[in-house]
Amino acid sequence: MNNGSRISEFILLGLSNPPEFDTLLFFVFLTMYLVAMAGNLLIIIITNVDPALNTPMYFFLGNLSFLDIICTTSAVPKVLFNLFTGIKRISFNGCIIQMFFFTVGMDTEFLLLTFMSLDRYLAICNPLRYKSIMSRKSCFSMSIIVWVFGLSSSSFHSSSTLWLSFCGPNKINHFFCEVPQVLALSCSNISLNKYVLIVTDLILGLICIILIFISYVFIMFAILNIRSTEGKKKAFSTCASHITVVLLFYGTLIFAYFKPSDKSSNLDKEIAVFYTIVIPMLNPILYSLRNKEVKLAIQKVISRKTFFRAIF
């Protein structure tokens, strides 16, 4: 495809660490990646094979784990290859593909976390109508909405980048291809790309966090109105994991995109480590450690009979 580019590859400058630390970083990233993959795959398996987890909350949790796999797999394997071989090149098309899958994962996760907060709001504030509103059909519809939006947003960013000219330099001061860093290297007019990026950030960042905040304001009032202490603890425990995930995800991204512009680019890469591998690794741990139903399902699925039935 003729993309107007004068270069055929980019150089990923990586984490700006001394070469002697590459081996240590390789094993650290590999360990975290394997933990993230194992944890999220386990969540996907148990939410599909255990009838006790056949609820809207765990349906969305399975989607979240799949998105975490997409996010971390889009970036980390290339980082591991670069650290192991010392070769920091990535082809132009490889960069676009990496950018596409990472953006799909991130943009879809914004909306999914919002729908998960809506699910908790309905479960606690409107329990009598919860099952009728959050039916299987409604959950699939919500899932389709978030995936279509994420795919559409990512497709625009990736396809529009294909037609930009890149005259050089071709060095990306990052450890993977992310939209802002790639656009910064273009010698074309990127006004439309920046405009759409800003609009997308506002929709996904500002609007979604406002909706999540409003949902939890109502949830907190509902919990405070519960008379029994046990009832309050049970209601809060169903939200605790989601609140923690939201704070980690949004807190990291808000700091990344709204920090002072004079901060070093090394800080950008350190923050990116969190939302590419640390958060995907922590999400299944947070949901399993604080949830008795998930713990019980994990105990079932690790039994040989259930495990092989889930795999085959």
Question: What would your notes on this structure say?
Answer:
With 312 residues, this protein is mostly helical. The chain has a single domain, classed as Rhodopsin 7-helix transmembrane proteins (Rhopdopsin 7-helix transmembrane proteins). The protein is 76% helix and 3% strand. It has helices spanning 22-49, 56-85, 92-125, 127-133, 136-162, 179-183, 191-224, 229-258, 265-289, 292-301, 304-311; strands at residues 9-12, 89-91, 171-172. Strands 2-1-3 form a three-stranded mixed β-sheet. The chain is globular, with a radius of gyration of 21 Å.
Quick take:
By secondary structure, the protein is an all-alpha fold. The chain has a single domain, classed as Up-down Bundle (Rhopdopsin 7-helix transmembrane proteins).
Strand portion:
under 5%
Assembly state of the chains shown = single chain
Number of helices: 11
Q: In total, how many domains does the architecture comprise?
A: 1
Query: Strand order within the widest sheet?
Result: 2-1-3
CATH level 1 name: Mainly Alpha
Identify the CATH homologous superfamily: Rhodopsin 7-helix transmembrane proteins
CATH level-3 fold name: Rhopdopsin 7-helix transmembrane proteins
Rg (CA only): 21 Å
For the report, how would you describe the main beta sheet? 3 strands, mixed
Tell me how many strands there are.
Answer: 3
Broad structural category = mainly alpha
